[in-house]
Structure formats: C-alpha cells, structure tokens
C-alpha cells in the first residue's frame, strides 16, 4: 500500500508543470549557492597552500557552507520527487541558512572582506528559495497527513482502507 501512495505522489510531483518549474528554479539557485561555497573553499585552500593566514574559523565556515550546499541540493532533488520530509527540510534551510550566514559574517573583524562578500553572495543566491518553497501552491503539494489516516487520491481512489491492528 505504501509503495502505491509513494509512487502516486512522486508521479504527481514529476508531472505537474508548476511543481516541476518551482523545483527546477530552486535547484538552480541551490547550485549557485553551491558555486559560491566552492569558490570560498577553493580560495581558503589556495591561501593555505601559499602559506597565508587561514583561521580555523574560516575553514569551518567554508567547509560548513560547502556541506550545506551539497545537503540542500540532495534534499531539493528528493523533495522534487515527492518526499515531504525533504521538502520540510528545504523550507527550513532556505530560511535559516541565509540569515545565519549574514548574521555570523556581520561580526566586525572576524573574517576578511573577500570571505564575507563571497559568503553573503551565496546567501543572497539562496534567499529566493525561501520565497519559492513557501508559496501556497507548492505547500499544498505536500499536505500534512494525520497519523493513522491515509491521503485520498480523490473519488476514483480504489485502494482498500488501511487495516487497524
């Protein structure tokens, strides 16, 4: 039974043009965020190899940004296939990460200007994702299900009712 509903949800998300377009845009924005994270990490690596001062804070921020970009992209792909749990995580990340990046990078003197500029550019690239994934149409595509109930596919849904233990 669960396989059927998962397949139906995945098929629905894959065939609805509005959902597909929204997730295509989100994927592109996350890739831009990822590109900025790679740029930050690459500059930190190059500076370190050249013997320039690179703090552990810079390593942590650069590595964390890269890791969050990879995870966010993966979650976006999974959500675009109909996984509500991944969609919820993308919604949270899209709101929290840009705010966190800008807040932490705003601490005066903690990071070099080039680092702050690249990280904030990545945050700005990710920020529109929050608007897209929180639109009513996309939220409606991931309805909340009450434990013990099953989502209905409509009047033509011929699946047998769930058995109670």
What do the pLDDT scores average to?
85
Q: What general form does the structure show?
A: elongated
Quaternary state of the chains:
single chain
Q: Total number of β-strand segments? A: 0
Radius of gyration from the CA trace?
A: 20 Å
Main pleated-sheet profile: none
The SS-based structural class is mainly alpha
Fraction of residues in β-strands: under 5%
SSE string, helices as H and strands as E: HHHHHH
Distance between the termini: 16 Å
Q: Helical residue percent?
A: over 70%
Q: Regions with pLDDT < 50 over 5+ consecutive residues? A: 1-8, 153-160
Tally the helices.
6
Short account of what is shown:
This protein has 165 residues and is mostly helical. It is 73% helix and 0% strand. The chain contains six helices and no strands.
């Amino acid at each position: 039974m669960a396989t059927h509903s998962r397949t139906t949800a995945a098929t629905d998300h894959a065939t609805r043009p509005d959902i597909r377009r929204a997730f295509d845009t989100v994927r592109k924005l996350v890739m831009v965020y990822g590109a900025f994270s790679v740029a930050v990490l690459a500059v930190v690596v190059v500076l370190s190899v050249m013997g320039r001062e690179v703090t552990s804070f810079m390593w942590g921020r650069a590595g964390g940004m890269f890791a969050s970009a990879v995870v966010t992209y993966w979650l976006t792909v999974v959500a675009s296939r109909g996984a509500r749990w991944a969609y919820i995580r993308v919604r949270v990340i899209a709101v929290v990460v840009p705010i966190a990046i800008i807040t932490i990078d705003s601490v005066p003197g903690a990071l070099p200007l080039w680092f702050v500029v690249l990280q904030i550019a990545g945050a700005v690239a990710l920020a529109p994702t929050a608007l897209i994934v929180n639109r009513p149409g996309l939220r409606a595509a991931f309805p909340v299900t009450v434990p013990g109930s099953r989502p209905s596919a409509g009047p033509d849904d011929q699946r047998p009712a769930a058995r109670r233990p």
